[in-house]
Amino acid sequence: MKDLQAFFANNARSDLNKEIVVSERFKGQDGKPMAWKIHSITEAENEEYRKGATRRIKGKNGTQQTEIDQNIYLAKIIVASVSFPDLKNAELQRSYGVMGAEELLRKMLFPGEYAALVQQVQEINGFDQGMEDLMDEVKN
To answer: Is residue 85 reached through a cis peptide bond, with omega within 30 degrees of 0 on the bond before it?
Structure first.
């Protein structure tokens, strides 16, 4: 019975945090690259983002099928996992001429920087496999 206590909510780490440098382009007052802060999300949150990225499409013979938009799904997970900078900050969004945290990420990061952030967010959330494997798992 003692071993079971390790799984009790009060003994489990519920939120993992990590600081990462996504880009050398964002420098603090000291001239050093600014670290982004990311944290883990729960499976309940993940399910919500997956549902938010799922669309119904017409299949053959008028049947309805569901499809997950991988880009929307990833952006939702990233926004939920980034705690600094505050991607929902209106002033930050205005500085890039966008509205919305997902659009902000697309505008402020280069493709390689975005990919590096995706990788770190996947890692902190326990995704050990590649995104294609993850998307296949999500679809099932």
So the answer is: yes
